[in-house]
Write a structure and sequence with these properties.
Elements: H1 2-9, E1 14-16, H2 18-27, E2 33-38, H3 41-46, E3 52-56, E4 61-64, E5 67-71, H4 74-83, E6 92-96, H5 102-114, E7 120-123, E8 136-137, E9 143-144
Parallel strand pairs: 1-7, 2-3, 2-6, 6-7
Antiparallel strand pairs: 4-5, 8-9
Helix pairs in contact: 1-5
Length: 155
């Protein structure tokens, strides 16, 4: 319950575009933490935003009688985010597999807000391929092709 009250005190996450994220990479390359919040590691390995760290969203919940519906303690969240490289001195940008699970990125942002992180952003969802403006990387480091929508506008 403490996390809920702390989230009310923290700054609200903001939406940023892929262009804004590209600018953050260019201006503050080493100080931006990008979290890829999905529950399927194979999708992350197939292609993710460069320098994004993977977070399986199921790690954010505790099970009650086998159902993962409980919030973890603050110490557990602090340790988890510390392992991902999240610090209060670094802005955090979060995205998820927008085609089906945008709520995962929002859930991560809500938890970070409860931890009173001062700079949280959600990457704007753009269907069907919302990250087409950014290069993608596979787990082997190779770039993947940028995906264009049927209209050819990159969205």
């Amino acid at each position: 319950m403490l996390l809920v009250w702390l989230a009310l005190l923290g700054p609200s996450p903001r939406l940023i575009s892929t262009g804004e994220l590209a600018t953050l990479f260019a201006l503050r390359d080493s100080s931006v933490t990008v979290i890829d919040a999905r529950n399927d590691y194979t999708l992350y390995l197939e292609g993710h935003i460069p320098r994004a760290v993977y977070l399986n969203v199921e790690e954010l919940r505790a099970a009650d009688r086998g159902v993962p519906n409980k919030i973890l303690g603050l110490a557990s969240y602090a340790a988890l985010f510390s392992r991902l490289g999240v610090g209060l001195d670094r802005p955090v940008v979060i995205y998820s597999a927008g085609e089906t699970r945008n709520i995962d990125a929002t859930y991560v942002a809500w938890i970070l807000q409860g931890l009173v992180h001062p700079s949280i952003a959600l990457l704007e969802p753009r269907e069907p391929h919302r990250h087409a403006a950014l290069p993608r990387r596979r787990s082997d480091g190779a770039r993947t092709r940028r995906i264009r929508s049927r209209s050819g506008d990159g969205r």
